[in-house]
Amino acid sequence: MTSTLKRQIQQFYDASSGLWEQVWGEHMHHGYYGSTGKEKKDRRQAQIELIEEMLNWAGIRQVGTITGDCPQILDVGCGIGGSSLYLAQKFNARAVGITLSPVQASRAIARAQEAGLANEVQFEVADALDMPFADDTFDFVWSMESGEHMPDKTKFLQECYRVLKPGGAFLMATWCHRPITPATGELTSDERQHLAEIYRVYCLPYVISLPEYEAIARSLSFQNIGTADWSDAVAPFWDIVIDSAFEPKAILGLLQSGWSTIEAALSLGLMSRGYQRGLIRFGLLCAHK
Ligand code: SAH
């Protein structure tokens, strides 16, 4: 992974995570507004429902080990540990979260301590493309909205596969662009320009389509691969984020967080317009090793 991209992602999350937590809470991801996106919900509840709906969709009702040992969960791109703590508690498991941001990792460690789970849930600054874990370590690998930051999507899935125990489950959600089919054609130059703006503002090297993720997963021998496009269910999130940016504490926080966070806030419309025109897609992939 190039050190420039790594540094940009690290600085972006170092600078913006405190404000996000203050305004939105511990989950730094979309919410679920019913399968057609029409349901009105409390915003934190919508984020928890996204986690629950994904687990349900993937058929993950429990995370267990054949030996009966405590199950091990890996949260790839963990933010401040929202999913890691939630999943560890739900499945009575141990969890490790990795992030590129030292600010996120230390906040996540503090949150685990506050929850009385410092022994069960741990956090490290580590690169998902070169994970500091042995092969066959985890029963469940979870990645919520980090794939879009990965400069090598194959290496990303390869690492997730490597650290998973045989029989273990993988579940991810990630930002994608629309599929390229003979009917829809290649991305137009206007679509490419729109994507380039999103990449620049949110520190993404590029995104790919969901069928491309599926092809990579197949090439790596993942089993029982399932995919789904949940764009309609999550797209309302961005309009709600835009509204929240006008709350007085958000405006004050933005002014204190620096230019990259302000620019990201000013560019929220890029994502809602991306969904509206069908360019941005919210892709899910589940599989087993
Ligand atoms: N999954 C979290 C956070 C999503 S934000 C949540 O839902 O709350 C994206 C996260 O991906 C950030 O924590 C960022 O540090 C992490 N990330 C991006 N690229 C990464 C990489 N190469 N290795 C590890 N983490 C990465």
Task: Give structural notes.
The structure is a single chain. By secondary structure, this protein is α/β, with parallel strands linked by helices. The protein has helices at 3-23, 43-57, 82-90, 102-114, 153-163, 189-202, 210-219, 231-234, 237-244, 248-257, 259-266, 268-276; strands spanning 72-76, 94-99, 121-125, 138-144, 164-177, 223-229, 280-288. It has a single domain (3-288), classed as Rossmann fold, CATH 3.40.50. The chain contains 12 helices and 7 strands. It has a 7-stranded mixed β-sheet, sandwiched between helices. Helix 9 runs antiparallel to helix 12 (268-276). The longest helix is centred in the N-terminal third of the chain and has 21 residues, at 3-23. The relative contact order is 0.16. S-adenosyl-L-homocysteine (SAH) binds next to helix 1, helix 3 and strand 2.
How would you summarize the topology of this molecule?
Blueprint: H1 3-23, H2 43-57, E1 72-76, H3 82-90, E2 94-99, H4 102-114, E3 121-125, E4 138-144, H5 153-163, E5 164-177, H6 189-202, H7 210-219, E6 223-229, H8 231-234, H9 237-244, H10 248-257, H11 259-266, H12 268-276, E7 280-288
Parallel strand pairs: 1-2, 1-4, 2-3, 4-5
Antiparallel strand pairs: 5-7, 6-7
Helix pairs in contact: 1-10, 9-12
The chain binds S-adenosyl-L-homocysteine (SAH).
